[in-house]
Amino acid sequence: MKVLLDHCVNRRFAGLLAGHDVSHTSEFGWGDLQNGKLLDAAVDSGFEVIVTVDRNFRHQQNITVRSLSLITLEATGIDLRAISPLAGRVVATLDEGLRPGLAITISGEGVLP
């Protein structure tokens, strides 16, 4: 899947998502784009999934009307050490496929709608 890491996700997390085409917002100069504009740019660029650690992202935007999905990582922190244990679940979820408009949370407890 074509995956975009939000600016608040450590870019080194991309290396943990084997088998997927992963980019970071910084690669496109999108670090300053906020949620709605970021979603528009991601859709226009063909991304299928955005990965974020921003727990409010899904509540600030209506993802259900978009042609991509949202994965929110929920860990004890937002640094690479905190989120890297979630990489296996992210890869498994991406491998299974996500339907557009789906917003899920991946935490140490599993995958939650």
Spell out the blueprint of helices and strands.
Elements: E1 2-5, E2 21-24, H1 35-44, E3 49-52, H2 57-60, E4 69-74, H3 80-83, H4 87-96, E5 103-107, E6 110-112
Parallel strand pairs: 1-2, 1-3, 3-4, 4-5
Antiparallel strand pairs: 5-6
Describe this structure in words.
- Helices cover 25% and strands 23% of the residues.
- The chain has 113 residues and is an alpha/beta fold.
- It has a 6-stranded mixed beta sheet with strand order 2-1-3-4-5-6, covered by helices on one side.
- The longest helix is centred in the middle third of the chain and has 10 residues, at 35-44.
- The two termini are 20 Å apart.
In terms of DSSP E residues, the strand content is 15-25%
Estimate the helix proportion, in percent.
10-25%
Number of individual domains: 1
Shape: globular
Question: Could you provide a short overview of the structure?
Answer:
By secondary structure, the chain is an alpha/beta fold. It has one domain.
Describe the structure using short key phrases.
single chain; 113 residues; alpha/beta; six-stranded mixed sheet; 4 helices
